[in-house]
Amino acid sequence: MRGTLYFARSCPPCILALVILFTVAVSGERSVITLTNNGYSGILIAIGSDVPEDSTIITNIQDYFTEASKALFTATNRRSYFKDITILVPKTWTMTASPATTESFDRANVIIDKANPIYGDSPYVKQGSTCGKPGERMHLTPKFVSDRTYSETTFGHIGDPCAAMNLARSSMEAQRRHGGRFDRTQDDYFIEASKALFTATNRRSYFKDITILVPKTWTMTASPATTESFDRANVIIDKANPIYGDSPYVKQGSTCGKPGERMHLTPKFVSDRTYSETTFGHIGSIEATRCNGGIGGRPIQGFKGARPGYPCNKDPVTGLYQKECVLYPDFSTKEKTSIMFYHFLQSVTTFCGNSPDSEAIDHNTEAPNRQNRLCEGKSVWEVILEHPDFSNGSNPAVSWDNENFNTTPSFTVVKEVERRYVLILDVSGSMNNTLDREVCFYTIVGN
Q1: Which residue, 197, 200, 329, 422, is most buried by CB atoms nearer than 10 A?
Q2: 284 to 101, 181, 205, 302: CA distances (angstroms)
Q3: CA-wise closest residue to 286 among 273, 276, 299, 295
């Protein structure tokens, strides 16, 4: 089956940005990548013609993608790895290599070329505009690939992600999260939520009156319902959802501005204050946008131009942290997800789950990020599983009987060659007509 590498915008070598692999439809303009028996073949990495010859680039490409293949195998629950990779070097390089055949710089899936004026030496891929749509090819720079000291200091050691401390490039939005404060009753929760809403909307809205409908089986004294019913409720407190568990959730609308369906809370979330505050935080508190929500830490100033490492201040009107703030994570965390978030944490090895095929059922559906916005709250792993490469049982996990499965790719280095053009002119009787010859010539040369 066909697939394509669909990377995160910033790709640190800790998994070589693990080149986060979303398997989606292949563009005919790129080298065709296929997935067979769990192995991706046909990956083409090309070095730009302006890049000076440096054998270190070849060596480090092989090292980076060998580690990336191993990490990919773990992240996809033993369902995929990089089987073979071709490296195309410029024709100006003097090193010995087999001549390229169909390989060209324009068809490469990954390019090593001069720095982009906007991103500098940071790895990047321009993202697709819709969920599941592939991005364009990955762009690495000669400095990023060859200068391992720079790469590891800035983005993290490929074999020791805990060394990556580049918080300035890990974007984090502070958000007000109306989660888990249930002191004595539901009334307390919505009293505090109303106060937080009033602040968040710049004093333009709050909850004026709320009706709570209890089951007829309860023995408590309450006025009889008139038009109220469970089916008409805006917020329900009911048994846990098989996917979301005790996490509060609202199924989002599919387009911008479209309201979601009613909010779902569980009895445990509402009644168990210790669980709620430990897991989701105090109502009205500021939470970092992250996935998963179990990764703790503290806010610091981290963006370029700010004072790295300095404490963050809150806006006196909105109560939110200043925009330069990022989350300095707790490096002792044991959370396994998500490599789409803080990939450099030692324990992080896989994608967020929320699917039967994942051990981690912990996607943060509340995070106001592109993943939730474009994919209607679906986790990365859910989106991956929708592609034919993995759907309907395709490429099932490699058996644990083969515990030491070899994920090391085979590498082939080829050198760009001068293009040769052949012009064929039919001089037979059928081409005596001048117009026919002109049409034929245009068809061969013009197209």
Answers
A1: 329
A2: 61, 9, 15, 24
A3: 299
The verdict on residue 52 lying in a domain is yes
Burial class (CB in 10 A: 0-12, 13-18, 19+), 37: exposed
Distance (Å, whole) CA 82 – CA 124: 20
The rounded distance, in Å, linking the Cα atoms of 447 and 443 is 6
What's the rounded Cα separation, in Å, for the pair 103 and 31?
8
Strand partners, 44: 86
HSE (CB half, 13 Å, CA atoms) of 178? 18
Domains of the chain: total: 1
* Closest listed residue to residue 43, CA positions, set 77, 12, 85, 1: 85
Whether residue 362 is contained in a domain is answered as no
Tens-digit pLDDT profile for residues 19-69:
443 333 334 467 788 899 999 999 999 999 999 999 999 999 999 899 889
Q: Let me know: does 89 contact 412? Beta carbons within 8 Å.
A: no
61 domain-assigned: yes
State the Cα–Cα distance between residues 47 and 55, nearest whole angstrom. Answer: 12
Strand partners, 314: 321
The token pair that represents 435 in the structure block: 């117009």
User: Quick one: tokens of 225?
Assistant: 């319902």
Residues in the chain: 447
258-301 pLDDT, tens digit per residue, is: 777 788 889 888 887 667 766 666 655 667 777 776 777 888 87
Which region, left, alpha or beta, applies to residue 407 given φ > 0 means left and ψ of -120 to 50 means alpha? alpha
The verdict on whether omega for the bond into residue 379 sits within 30 degrees of 0, i.e. cis, is no
Instruction: Residue 83: give the domain boundaries.
Output: 2-168+391-415
**81 falls within a domain:** yes
Q: Which residues of 271-304 are buried (b: 16+ CB within 10 A; e: fewer)?
A: ebbeebbebbbebbbbbbbbbbbbbebebbbbbe
Task: For residue 437, give both structure tokens.
Answer: 């010859």
